Amino acid sequence: MEGLGGDSTSPMAPFAKWKTEFSRVFQFYLDKSTPLPVHRWLGTLAVASIYVLRVYYLEGFYIISYGLGIYILNLLIGFLSPKVDPELEALDGASLPTKESDEFRPFIRRLPEFKFWYAITKAFIVAFLMTFFSLFDVPVFWPILLCYWIVLFALTMKRQIMHMIKYKYVPFTVGKQKYGGRKSPGGSSASSPTHRG
Fold it and tell me: Which positions of the chain have pLDDT values less than 70?
């Protein structure tokens, strides 16, 4: 019964070793891309452009594009929503600060930016790969799908914006007031030591 143990002579051992090595290298480059959001999003834009061009030139696979659009809309809602829903928190007695005297709590997303980017990029790659199989080229009248998606997007965003207004949160850092360190009357920062002679 030599073949039943954890032998390294198993026919799957080289595949498992390759998979482990590939996943380690992939994670290394994924970790290196974390502090570079502009580069990551430009790469995703390139992948999305390749997908759009492929669908345009093939004049098909509209159902895949529709499913991709619904998935991205779902991700966008997670990206714009707070981690703790204020409606549920209000039932528990706790809520977002509404007065200046209330405790400040930063906006924490339900779906962080990195995971949002990673999921969208994977979705475009999977959709692109699906365009190589005619099984997924279901004949549909694409203007109806496009109109339905636009209506769905508008209604969903309206609901999300109303939620933001009701609970007074902004999921973006652009346009928010930034606070610096305290300044002393002499123009130097309060944290710098003053020397007396």
Answer: 1-9, 89-105, 173-197
Neighbouring CB atoms inside 10 A of 69's CB total: 19
pLDDT of residue 15: 84
Are the C-beta atoms of 110 and 83 separated by less than 8 Å?
Answer: yes
pLDDT in the model for residue 168: 79
Residues forming a β-bridge with 82: 109
Query: Is residue 78 a contact partner of residue 110, using CB atoms and an 8 Å limit?
Result: yes
Tokens encoding 139: 């004949």
Q: What is the DSSP annotation of 142-192?
A: HHHHHHHHHHHHHHHHHHHHHHHHHHT--S--TT-------B-TTSSBTTS
Integer Cα distance of 82 and 96 in angstroms: 11
Cα angle vertex 100, ends 94, 101, to 5°? 70
Residue 183 has phi, psi (to 5 degrees) of -105, 135
Distance separating alpha carbons of residues 109 and 176, to the nearest angstrom? 16
- Measured CA to CA in angstroms, residue 68 lies from 15, 48, 63, 64, 158 at distances of 31, 11, 8, 6, 21
- The reported pTM is 0.73
Name the amino acid, one letter, at 151. V
Q: What's the pLDDT score for residue 12?
A: 79
